[in-house]
Prior knowledge:
two-stranded antiparallel ribbon; mainly alpha; single chain
Amino acid sequence: MVELKVKVGEKGQILIPKVFRDRYGIVEGEKVSIEPTSEGILIRGKPSPEEIMKRLEEHVEKIRRMRVSSPKLGDLSKAYLEMEFEENTG
C-alpha cells in the first residue's frame, strides 16, 4: 500500500491525493465518511454496490433480531374495546 503524507491546512482541511480519489471514486462535491479507528482516521469514498447490499443485509438482520412476539398497541386497544362492549351488552 502506498503511504503519502499530506499537510493539514489552517481549518483542518487536507487534500486527498488524486491517486486515492481516482481509486476510491471520490469526486469534487461528494461526501465521504470519516470514522475513528484504533489506528487513526479512516476516510471512505462512496461505497460500491456490493458494500451497499452488505450494509442493507446487516440492517435487515438487526431488524429481524429486534422483533418482539408481544402484542402491538393497536391489538391491545381492540381487545379492551371488545371486552368493554361484551360487559355492557351482556
